[in-house]
Amino acid sequence: MALYIQKSLLLLLICFFIMSCAGPVTDIPDNVADNTVIVQNPGDNYIGKVQNGEPAPDFSLPDVNGNMVTLSDLRGKKVVINLWWIRCHGCTDEMPFLQEFYEKYSGQNMALIAINDYEKEVVVKSYIEGKNYTFTVISDSNKQLYKGYTNWGVPTTFFIDEDGIIRNRKDAGFISVEEIEEFYNSN
After folding, report:
1. φ/ψ (deg, to 5) at 74
2. What mean pLDDT do residues 70-96 have?
3. Does 96 sit behind a cis peptide bond, omega within 30 degrees of 0 on the bond before it?
4. What are residue 9's phi and psi, to 5 degrees?
5. What's residue 90's pLDDT?
6. Residue 152's domain is classified under what CATH number?
7. pLDDT at 43
8. Which is it for strands 156-160 and 136-139: parallel, antiparallel or unpaired?
9. Average confidence (pLDDT) over 122-147
10. Most exposed residue of 56, 60, 64, 85, measured as fewest CB within 10 angstroms of its CB?
């Protein structure tokens, strides 16, 4: 009986983890915390987002420091776009690896942009500053990017070549810097 309970609890924990990082929700509770913006399923437009070999949708959004970031201005550089959420453990667990990757490759014609599309900008900025992350971070609470880039959830990372073409993507968190490098160098 104890083994059955342990297996049931493990299955429940696995389901909770998957649901916490799966992205959009359709039921919004009445008591949503002030620091969170919940994404509703945008309907039919949610299926069939950009894939490898397609041009990355352009965007122009301010980062958490007020600087405008325009993807097309980064042509000629490799760009890594990471979609994330503070409450997603897979997302926050990979952040130190992204920072280490950024420190290693930022001087090599590469831009890393982490885009949070769930929490308010003040919360995102506080989190990033508290962790001393130095790559570009955007708080996209209007969901401009999310609707154009992914049909999976977070974390999702896109690897874009110098011509603005998506060459690789990962729909899960990274577990090491070496894994990020494998995706980055495969395009």
Report:
1. -95, 5
2. 94
3. no
4. -65, -40
5. 92
6. 3.40.30.10
7. 38
8. unpaired
9. 87
10. 60
Q: CA 28 to CA 24: how far, in whole Å? A: 10
**Number of domains comprising the chain:** 1
Q: What local confidence, expressed as pLDDT, does residue 140 receive?
A: 84
Q: How is the chain classified by DSSP, letter by letter? A: -HHHHHHHHHHHHHHHHHHHTS---S---TT--TTB-PPPP-GGGGSS---TTSBPPP-EEEBTTS-EEEGGGGTTSEEEEEEE-TT-HHHHHHHHHHHHHHHHHTTTTEEEEEEE-SB-HHHHHHHHHHHT--SEEEE-TT-HHHHHH-SS-SSEEEEE-TTSBEEEEESS--S-HHHHHHHHHT-
The amino acid at 167: R
Check: CB of residue 121 under 8 Å from CB of residue 63: no
Distance between CA atoms of residues 79 and 122, nearest Å: 25
Most confident region among 20-34, 93-107, 109-123, 151-165 by mean pLDDT = 93-107
Structure tokens that stand for 184 in this block? 């980055």
How far is residue 24's CA from residue 27's CA, in Å, rounded to a whole number? 9
Q: In which domain, by residue range, is 104 found?
A: 2-24+33-185
pTM for the complete prediction? 0.73
Q: Please compute the mean of the pLDDT values over residues 14-22 and round it to a whole number.
A: 48
Looking at residue 160, the DSSP 8-state letter turns out to be E
